Amino acid sequence: MATNEGNRGPGTVVAAAAMSLAVYAALAVSGDLRSRPAVYVVGHLVLVALMLFVWKATGRSGRRAWRVVLVSAAAFRLVMATAPPTLSDDIYRYVWDGSVQAAGHHPYRYAPADPERAEFRSLPVTARIHDPETVTSEAPLAELCFAGLAAAKLGVTGFKLAIALADLGVVAAMIGLLNAYGAPRERAVLYAWNPLAIVETAGSGHIEPLGVALVILCVMALTRGRPVAAAAALGAAIQAKLVPVLLLPGFARRLRTHAVLVLAVVVLALGAVYALRGPALGAGLLPTVQRFEHGSIVYPAIESLYERLDPAPALRGAIAWAQSRWGSADTRVWDALNRMAGPEELARLTVLAVLLGWALAQSARARITPLREARLVLGAAILLAPACHPWTVLWALPLAAAEGAYAWVLLAALVPLQYLAGEGDVPWPLRFAILTPPIVWMAWDSIRSVRAARAAPDAVGTRAAAV
């Protein structure tokens, strides 16, 4: 009986792989998916259904089915990497940044529209760059990768193929993480075949897989008792996208002194590549963080609350009083404080404070595993941030799938519905439809976990260490 079921397994997985490949090929030749969002969303939902089917089928099948899963994951990414990027224009900025560096220039000095970069106006990607008046916001390790790819004379497709390869690195790291925790390996299907991951990385060319893979390697190294490797991976992850800096409070306490020094050396060495010749980071980072709000439901509620309470007059009065007592001729600090008294700035500061508090709270939990801590911290960043784009979900998706926190799989299935809004902002009914079901599921999982911990704390601690 078991043998027959195992023999049937590869056949059903092959059939699902063929159907999935056909859907990806159809999306690849469908033209501008931004102008045809319904086509993309329907294809996405079909691919989600096939992914879930294969997730269950792989658990009942043998090694041949597993090989089909992995080969198919690579084939899906290859198809999408060779298609034009239509859902995002970030890849054009990456290619431009790399081309600037290949010509011997500093990527953080000037924006694409700056007269100092007029020599690059003839590049095909220049006209496709979003917000060309802003200097790049990408982190040093990402910029080094762009420089290497541009030096190899790779264009948009070459960059996308490299990012697709990095995303396969996420899959490989996730499999290693599952082995380290003794968790079912078929959970890797929930990322390897996830259309959100495939379209947003190989299809659109977002650089997230570089940082995500390093975070997973860090978690795996901590789990296996390799603090130096974990420190090096975390340092590189921070310089790949900066988001993993939120993991520092909890992960640093797991490291010995020499490992913390390794982390610091990696961060400083990667930053020094650019800091020794000019700015250490792109000036576009702060405007990007300050300006954009997209798809979130938590941040807008906080901003709306500050608008209703209107604390700005009282805060600015207090600032004026403090300035009269301790001020000097240089008013830059006081001017900055006055700007921060507005509702938008207060909302962003509140979100940042909550995120830092949440990260510190997780770091103080005695029995939390590195996997769960990373998932909870990065997941909170996704849900609380002013901008919740589809590709940002990738920071938590492989960690959540590895742990069995399937509410994130639901969010990954729903978040591409944002594209139905077109180029404009995501309407509130659509935001609630996307975020409410997974958030309710996450809350319910948390409640059940707390109840179980109160009922049998020792047993729960043992299970958490083994998940």
What's the total number of strands?
0
Proportion of residues in extended strands: under 5%
Q: Report the end-to-end length measured between terminal Cα atoms.
A: 29 Å
Rg result: 23 Å
Please outline the major beta sheet.
none
Shape: globular
SSE string, helices as H and strands as E:
HHHHHHHHHHHHHHHHHHHHHH
Mean pLDDT: 91
Name the poorly predicted regions: 1-7, 459-467
Q: Residue share in helices?
A: 55-70%
What is the helix tally? Answer: 22
Helix/strand/pairing category: mainly alpha
Task: Please provide a written account of the structure.
This protein has 467 residues and is an all-alpha fold. The protein is built from 22 helices and no strands. Helix 6 (156-181) packs antiparallel against helix 8, helix 10 packs parallel to helix 12 (257-275) and helix 20 (407-414) packs antiparallel against helix 21 (428-455). The protein starts with a helix and ends with a helix. Mean pLDDT is 91; it is low at 1-7 and 459-467.
Strand and helix map with partners:
Elements: H1 2-28, H2 37-59, H3 63-81, H4 90-102, H5 140-151, H6 156-181, H7 189-192, H8 195-203, H9 208-223, H10 227-241, H11 248-252, H12 257-275, H13 285-291, H14 298-309, H15 312-326, H16 332-339, H17 343-363, H18 370-384, H19 397-403, H20 407-414, H21 428-455, H22 457-466
